[in-house]
Each structure stands twice: as structure tokens, then as C-alpha cells.
Amino acid sequence: MSQENKALEIPGFSLPESPLLPASTRQALPAYRRLMQASVNQAASPPTDDLDSRRRHERETYYQSVPYQRLRALYDVNVTLESIAGVTVETIVPNAGIAEHNQSRVLINLHGGNFEHGSQTTSQMESIPVAALGRITVISVDYRMAPEVQFPAATDDVEAVYRALLEQYSPATIGIFGSSAGAQLAGQLMVRLQETGQPLPAAIGLIAAGATKETGDSIPLVAAILQAAIGYSGLQESLKNAHYLKDADWDSPQVAPAQSDAAMAAFPPTLLASSTRDFLMSSVVATHSQLVRLGVPADLHLWEGLDHVFHYNPELAEATELHQVTVRFFERHLG
Fold this sequence. Notes:
Order of helices and strands: HHHEEEHEHEHEHHHEHEH
CATH architecture: 3-Layer(aba) Sandwich
Number of domains: 1
Largest sheet: 8 strands, mixed
CATH superfamily: Alpha/Beta hydrolase fold, catalytic domain
Distance between the termini: 53 Å
Radius of gyration: 19 Å
Strand order of the largest sheet: 1-2-4-3-5-6-7-8
């Protein structure tokens, strides 16, 4: 290996919770990380052949969890299952009513979960606060996932829902946001819409993932943190062997839009958000830099000392801050 490309051997060191975090956040993190550990263990358990039963069990367990119960206590919304263009969606409407200026607007959510989880679970952790705080309708797409399907099945589903919504809404009044895998999917959809000649939405939000390949400094750094914090050593391997994208061409902008300046230059105004212990922070930061270089309006928000998709923890003040940032961003950019 040349001197220029030589990997750095970093000795072990002690990493306390960031002293820049407020005391309330530092106190809330240990309990939430125990839940993270339980989720990792569940995801690593041998999958049953009956995927419908497995996902039904995941939902039932999720709905009984402390974070979900807290979420529903904080935000008064109605969640209904519907079908749009043959695709199951969750429609989230605030019980306080849709704000007058949002009557002709809609937000589309693309949930996280490594393209394997998140159906009717983390989708609500992402969508419910935004719907309630913004007093706007949020439609979360329950796209097909691995192991049943691989790329580009999720893009196909989201495109079908988006096209159907174009019959009801102007593209200038539609926003799309997603977290982690959902953020990746939002970027992939922008390329698909360009290729098929469809109008792009007014704005998009990429939270806890960007539009690049899954690489960068933050992955090995946070892999070490996860090993120390919750004993999880499989981050890099899980990214490498993720079922949905395992056979995808990462050099194609259809998979990693940042591979094409032309595709990225056509992006609508983009919100990017991450945190310093997010293993995909590098992708978020690099995506922001590329959009800025290309002249695309792009907002970058980073939170100190917090984990990947930290906004799934409704006890954190920073989670509320991120939801409020998301609401304000779309308020500015939707027609």
C-alpha cells in the first residue's frame, strides 16, 4: 500500500458521552441503547420462513415498546392503512386538523430499516411527529423489502405511489423525506423520475443517509463505537451483505445518485441531517458538499454525540428539534 493510501492504525481510547449534550439527553441515552441492543439481537435471530408472521410479531412488539408508547402520547394523530396504486401506505393525519395552508400539500415518507425492516413501525416514528407538528398529511409508503425482493422493487413501489398522487397534487406541493434506507430510496427515486421524465417534488429530506456509496470515515469509526457501546460487531459486514442492494451496481446513479453530477444537479432543494455517531454521517456530509458545489439549495444539520436515526427516540429534545427542522424546511419549499 502506498504511503498516501496507508490506513491509519488507531489505538483504543475512552469515549465518554459528549459533554456538549444536555444532562437530560445523557440520562436518556443508556436506556435507549439497551433497546437498540434488543433490536439488534432480534434482527440477528434466525428468520422464520413465514415472513408475514415475523413482521406481524415485529409490529406487535414495537407497538408495546416504551419509545412507541411515548410517541403516541406526545403526538395526537390518526393512522390508517390504505392502498395507492396497489401499494400499501399508512396515511397519518393530525387530529388537530390540517392547517389551512397545508390543505393542498402532502408529504411522502420512506421509512428506514435497511430495506428489511421498518414496515408500519419506524415509518410511524418518522411520520407521526412531522404530521402533528406540521399539521400536514403524511403518507408513508410500505414498499416491498428484502429478502423477498431486491433493488429496484422499492423504487418501483414509491414511483407508483408518487405518480398516483400527482393526479391529486401539484408536484410543487409534494415533499418527500426518509431516514437511513428511506433517505437512500428518496435519492434513488429522484434519478428514476429524471429518467422517466416525471416532474420532481418541490423538496426532499435525506435523514441519516445521503446519496453516495456506503463508504467514508464514519463507518469504521462508528463501527468501533457500536462494538464498545452495545457489543455489536457486525456493522460493516451487514452493510456489505445487505440483501436488498447486494447485487446492485453501486457505480450506477440509479443506486448511488452521487455517482452522477448531472443527476444530482437536477435534485430539488434538499434537507440533509445526521449526527456525529451516525455511521452514515460521511455520506450525508459528502452529499451536501456535492449539492452545494452544483448549485442546488441544500441545508445541512448535524447533532452532536448522537447515534444513527436518533430521532426514533422521542425522549430526546434533539429528536423534537430534528422534526421541527423538517417541518420548517418543507414549509419554506412547498408551494
